Amino acid sequence: MIALSLIGIGTGNPDHLTRAAKAAMRAADLILLPRKRAETAELLDLRAAICAAVVGGTVPTATFDIPGRDPVLPYLDGVAAWHDAIAAAWCAAITRHLPDGGRVALLVWGDPSLYDSSLRIAARLGAGAMPVTVEVVPGITSLQALAAAHAVPLTALGAPLLVTTGRRLTAEGWPAGIEMVAVMLDSVCAFERLNPAGTTIWWGAYLGMAQQSLLAGPLGATAPAIRDERTLLRARHGWIMDCYLLRRDAARAVASDR
Questions:
Q1: DSSP string over 109-140
Q2: Domain 2-137: which CATH number of 3.30.420.10, 3.40.50.720, 3.40.1010.10, 2.60.40.10
Q3: May I ask which residue range the UniProt record assigns to the signal sequence (predicted)?
Q4: Where residue 249 falls among pLDDT bands split at 50, 70, 90?
């Protein structure tokens, strides 16, 4: 039997770790660290540094390679196949390092509940030959870190917040009847496709990390600066994690459409 702990570690700052997260790491028999393409080695280094700070050499760690997603397949089909491949990589690593079972920890960027597929991948393990129980230790999300960095609330008074992706914002535009929209997983700067009238944006990359970058202001004036900064940072670091919050004054936006 494998007891799998999915531990939210925040957005790269070791100070984001909760006491529960540290306790779960120390209780593990093995901590698995994902390794992606070479230009994202910094992400592996950050996880390794967190392990060194929390458990030292008392809990063994092991790296495993994350397979790439097939860009040729339709998006949802490609993601499903990708998750199957990741589940197989988890299973192989666990079997190699814990052949008799035990407690395994995976350090999840942000929180496992928000646009992270760790729970869906873990379900594939349980549906296969590996018996597994799953524990989730919540962490600070990138949206929490974004709101804190800009010192703004995520919701307007008595109003809902919609959390969506850059893909959906590009395809569907501004959601009807919504004043506040939080956007994640946007590699194409979908905000540039919106009518900027009456809209404010709060953007952040590498939230909570030493290289944190923040920009905010009216969407029309700020969008080009965000695109330029995003391009610069991605070239410098080889990877980028960012998200943003949009607030729209509906009356001003409607007036500008007339």
A1: SB-TTSS--HHHHHHHHHHTTS-EEEEEE---
A2: 3.40.1010.10
A3: none
A4: confident
